[in-house]
Amino acid sequence: MFKRIGVIGAGAMGRGIAQLFASSGQQVLLFDTRAEAIDDALAFNRNLLQRAQAKGKMTEAELAATIARMQPAQTLEQLKDCDLVIEAIVELLDVKQKLFADLEAIVSEDCVLATNTSSLSVTRIASTAKHPERVAGFHFFNPVPLMKIVEVVRGERTDERHVQALVALAEQAGHFPAITPDTPGFLVNHAGRAFGTEALRMLSEGVASVQQIDRILRDGPGFRMGPFELFDLTGLDVSHAVMESVYEQFYHDPRYTPSFIAAQRVAAGLLGRKTGQGFYRYEDGQKIEQPEQQPETVLINRPFWLETDDDALRSQVEEVLTTAGATLETASKPSDDAICLITPLGDDCSTALTQLGLPADRTLALDSFANWDKRRTLMRQPAASANVVAQARQALSADGVPVEVINDSAGFVIQRLIASVVNLGCEIVQKGITAPQTLDRAIQLALGYPKGPLAFGEHYGKANILAVLNNIQAVYGEPRYRPSPWLRRRVQLDLPLTAPDFQE
Description:
The chain is built from 20 helices and 15 strands.
């Protein structure tokens, strides 16, 4: 086990790493090329620890011992007796390579060198080292003490002994170690690409507004933040750089295609909270909330007809229509006056109504993936009558649950985004980047998803997810939505998405 740890870089990540390991009992030396940065970081950590002690989370003796275990290093040479050195400096390959070369001339041959890089290849960082076998990735998330996960990245030449030693260190500090090979984006940034990129794609197609997409994804799948709120929090410049990096490293795989919207907004300086304006506006760091627009009241004078095999959904629709004073027809075909509601999986409304032979002027689509009790989504298509849309929206919100009206889209908002998240998760385990259980736990811890990608697939039904992807791919004709073999095989064999490949 590592007993003396050097941390290089006294920014937000470096100081957090120093606090984490000092709190778990290791001696920590913190170095930065700027002496004042070291002082500021140690003062910041002392303040946090004192506040924790004041809240009863640690005793005075524990406080004093933890602070004593964090010491400044004025020079790199003072790290010579460390058995682990972690760098958390600028994300530039040549700078990190030079730092490790300098360290190799100082530390012992047994000292492990770890990089906190979030986007650079660990193998490339290690490629100029005399002993690349002792170089590993040790990627934390901000704020380090609170985000209970760290990616332990195995470079192509990293010794397995060092990987396991870092795993043990992380567990001792109370963090979940997600072991991953040195692939683009590692695990978390890789799995997280589907969330923001697909939301940007929908925005670029005019499917729904920024506010609508965020509201639908908060109230449906239960994300704590919508994708555009998250962009504003992390900074669009940071998120876009990761999107571009992963796209380039996967040699332009369409799944990872960045958005011109993000590129333009970054160029304009619309970065989010830190600039006061992103997808939303901010004052003193607080988002300026805009009230949802309320539609005008209309007369409901048409019956409704619903295409679905879901008895529970039919009952829910009938109940709210009764509240609205409307009726739900029970015949196999709609009457000549009925507003037709269909529930496609992955198809857009135009495609689905054409296949069903329904009248375009009075046919709309209802998302079966929505959380019925929180927010419903109604999809219109270009031929729909405005009065039909207005009546359907009013009737379906008669019990007070808001209804979002979006434009024609393959897969609505929830289906499309969730299917992309699940599919990318399946690809990650298919490629052997991590185990299914590790994937789900890592994504929940690092990204705050209410469920991991594979758990989302089981929640909505893996066969439904496959149908959504197949139909979206048919509508767009793009490999972006090609289903993962991992997903397809487990649907065909009726196995859980967490089921491993065959092993003797």
